[in-house]
Structures are given as structure tokens and as C-alpha cells.
Prior knowledge:
Subunit structure: Monomer.
Function: Pyridoxal 5'-phosphate (PLP)-binding protein, which is involved in PLP homeostasis.
CATH architecture: Alpha-Beta Barrel
Number of domains: 1
Strand content: 15-25%
Bound molecules: pyridoxal-5'-phosphate
Family: Belongs to the pyridoxal phosphate-binding protein YggS/PROSC family.
Mean pLDDT: 94
Number of helices: 9
Radius of gyration: 17 Å
Number of strands: 8
Pfam family, one: Ala_racemase_N
Keywords: Pyridoxal phosphate
CATH topology: TIM Barrel
Amino acid sequence: MSLSQQNAIEQNLQNVREKIAAAAHLCGRPSEEITLLAVSKTKPASAVEEAIAAGQFAFGENYVQEGVDKIAHFAGHQPALTWHFIGPLQSNKSRLVAENFDWCHTLDRLKIAQRLNEQRPASLPPLQVLIQVNISDEASKSGIALHDIAELARQIMAMPHLTLRGLMAIPAVETDYARQLEVFGKMRDALKDLQNICPQADTLSMGMTDDMPAAIAAGSTMVRIGTAIFGARDYSVKQ
Ligand SMILES: *Cc1c(COP(=O)(O)O)cnc(C)c1O
């Protein structure tokens, strides 16, 4: 990686952090409430290393094996890195997620929760999980309906090797700020409802490069940013 690209990641991270701070300031929230996840899918370990050098320690990955490879590459790093699985999870890949990641954002059915719970090594802290909600995109197969959250939440809460931390959503692409806010507002309300049965649920994972300000205004506590940090992805080399 050339020197100019290295500087680009550091500069991009600084820009994203400033945008988070500005969006938080606008709605009167402390920016420390909002965790920046750097989404490093399809990017090489060298890019992750540059982000680490710029003070970024939380990363999101979509593809199980790619994520596991990077986790192994950076094993034992101090300060500790946090690895979040944010991609669709098939049951035949659940063991790798249970054994390697710190968080899983895309829990949307009981069977996967049961497998993760069984497969999470007892030597590790519980896997921190979010229920993925299908908030706006009826055509999407990922995520559960709002009215199904409570039932799945109760089932997860009975699992000793999982800790339910909140909700995640990937809304349909929407460029209008007011409409983004409306959709994210439904997630904020859903988290409040969830907190009635699960007080430890403190996390709303929502907001990507193009809809981050609205997500923060609606109460997001974790934004997932890829392109604005690492640049455009080249899918021809991955998958
Ligand atoms: C790729 C991805 C992101 C990051 O998207 P950008 O548009 O690159 O910021 C965030 N969340 C999920 C679930 C993703 O798959």
C-alpha cells in the first residue's frame, strides 16, 4: 500500500469521526455514545492495520472466512480489537462466528441463536448479539418483523452464552432525510419496547456512509462505515 493511501485511511477516519461529532452535536447527544465500526469487508489486513494505527479498534466483517482470517492475523493485539459479524449468517457457518467474533449483528431466527449458544466456547465471554429487524424493505429476506422481536428476544435471553444487546437494521436505500429519520425512528421505538423486557439492551446498530446523520438523530449507538473509510470496494477480487 502506498504512503498516500495510508494517509487517506487516517484522513478518512478523521473526517468520519468529525461527521459523527457534528451529527451528535446537532441533536444534543454526546458523541461518545456512538461507536464507529469500521467495515473492512473485502479490504486487506494492511488496510485494517492503517486504521488501527489511526486509533480505530472496532471492525465489522460480512464474510465469515475473511473475517476469521483477519481475526487470526491480529490475534493478541493490544489494545484489544473488537470484531463484529454484520453479514447474513448461514447455519453451516455459525460455529466459526461463535468461536471467533465478539459480536453478531444479524441474528434473525431461533435456530441460529441456538447454534451460536451451543457453539460459543465457555472459555470466552458470551457472544454479544443484536436482533436484525427488517424495518423497511419488504423484499429483503434478512431480519424479522417488528412484532416478532419480543418472542425471539425472550428466547435469546434464556441462552447463557449469548448476551442480547439490542437491534440492528439495514433500511432500504432512501435519500430523503425526513424519510430516513422516520424509518430509524421506528427502530428507536422498538429498542425502547425491547428494554422493557431486556434492560441490558443498549445498542442500536444503524447508519451507514449515506444515512449516518439521520441514524444518529434517531438514537443510533453504532454506525457501520465502510466506503467512507476504506474507499470503494472491488468485489471482483472477493466472494
Ligand atoms: C457493507 C456494509 C456496511 C458499510 O457500508 P458502506 O456503504 O461502505 O459504508 C454497513 N453495514 C453492513 C451490514 C454492510 O454490509
